[in-house]
Amino acid sequence: MMRPREGHGLNLERCSFNISIPHQLRWIRDPHENNIGIVDFIQEAEELVIEGEFVLRVCEENPFNFVIAPEAAEYPFTYEHELLSDLRPLSRSVYVRDVEEIRDWLHPLWHPGKRAGTLELLQELNTRTYRAFRYERRMEKGVQSPAETLEKNSGSCRDFATFFVEVCRFLGLAARFVSGYMYSPDITGRMSMHGWAEIYLPGAGWIGFDPSWGILAASQYIPVAVSRHSENAPPISGSYVGAPCAFLESQVDLYVRRVNE
């Protein structure tokens, strides 16, 4: 899951893959419309190298260029019945055991009986997540639960995105995890895949929030995959035949740069 998802302001002009082992490659779209490359290897090897290069044309867009439907402009609100039928799985918590911790963390910002502007509330949640926790690049496998992030008071981008998604689901909002690339002129060397969140707002659609930076996701964010659960969107996954100790190490080199103005 490395190929970017095209959108209104994002066009994929060139996409190329170089895979070191003889193989067969076919593309599918999953229920979330993610582009998934299925690779079957037809020869044994001691090393696997996958190189992908993508050239995109990006239209600069104002991330606030949307209008929330009047009935959803103030929270709390409920999704229209037919819409809710489609969004219900994305409105349900994955980490159900962490509900009490999420409620306690959320209480100063919102609690039953309080009304607030929907966008203002989401921005406040996004900003507070960014300010409350210490960013820490983690190399461990998997994602922290919201309770772990609260206990450690730190996490990676995927941990913050997961936390934000679960807070929004506690509020009854449809939310999903996004994995992708991020362009920043301040980063010139090797990067990592980035994770953020999207919330469905009637009249506006899916709106991206990045709690790692406390901002809305704009044109510098390049989505690759969306998922209900953050652990279901790895860039590369699979299996191999051999002893458990046969797998020695993996290395990732990722570069995102502007090719022209």
What is the topological layout?
Elements: E1 10-19, E2 23-29, E3 35-41, E4 50-58, E5 74-75, H1 81-91, H2 99-106, E6 116-117, H3 118-132, E7 134-135, H4 146-152, E8 154-155, H5 157-170, E9 175-182, E10 194-201, E11 205-210, E12 215-216, E13 221-227
Parallel strand pairs: 7-8
Antiparallel strand pairs: 1-4, 2-3, 5-6, 9-10, 9-13, 10-11, 11-12
Helix pairs in contact: 3-5
Question: Can you put this structure into words, describing what you see?
Answer:
The protein is of the alpha+beta class and about 260 residues long. It has a single domain, classed as Roll (C8orf32 fold). It is about 20% helix and about 30% strand. The strands form 5 sheets. A 5-stranded antiparallel sheet has the order 12-11-10-9-13. A two-stranded antiparallel sheet has the order 1-4. Helix 3 runs antiparallel to helix 5. It is globular, with a radius of gyration of 20 Å.
